[in-house]
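Attaching the record inline, Q. Sequence:
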Amino acid sequence: MLGCCCLWQEVALASSVTITYADLEGRNEESQFAYAVLELVLQRSGGAFKLQKSKTEMTDSRARQQLVSGKIDVSWLGISDVMPKEITLIPIPLTRGILGKRVLVIRGHDRQKFKHIHSISDLQPLTAGLGLGWPITTILASNGLPVTSVSNINSIFKMLASGRIDYIPLGANEARSFVSMYQAHFEDIDLVSDFYLDIPRYDFFFFVHRDNLKLHELLLAGFASAYEDGSYMTLYQSHPQHFPLKELALEQRRAILFENPLMTREIQHIDTRYWQ
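Structure, as predicted:
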């Protein structure tokens, strides 16, 4: 049996337990809403916990493998078409679906070109840049859009700056922070302001090993409790990562609706109160 699973089988709730989460490259936990949610959910679960990140950075694909092997306990990930059967999700979306509202990062001098985008077919002559293993790759490709995948976020921005890709579709809750981070290196990058890509019921979820039943139960109960007492919505509305949402004004943009082939039956049946 996996080491982390044994731990959860043997330790009482009142004990202090160390939980190892994936250090996903390019996502410093101090600024990540997902990390703040994990802290909150564990607090509301009623146990005593200490969070520690994995010793090495990893891609989403590597995080899935590390969950399978038991080298980490939990990670926040999107649904992929290659989800290992050994891991299972906690069926509450982390960002109420805002991650599925994708804002395009482009070269500033291409801004006029993107003003003429009104449909998926309008995007077909252009190439998106995404990280290796990002589930959004499958969604864009299944909707007929060209995609180039590379190993890390730094490489994606370098490819955009050099003209090897045309845009980077990032979640509305993360796009502005990434642009602010990379404008110091690549001045000619900006956000499209006229539209966004709308991918229904797409989000990050917490994942654990399927045999780690205790942690699954604790995360699910803690998440539900955080909704019931209002602390999740307080965090959602006050977290710095979400401050740019007002500036982006998605409600004033046109939405280009995508089909989501990764919407499993389990996700379809998640209560609507957990979605925006």
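The chain is about 35% helix and 25% strand. The CA atoms of residues 45 and 129 lie 38 Å apart.

More tomorrow.
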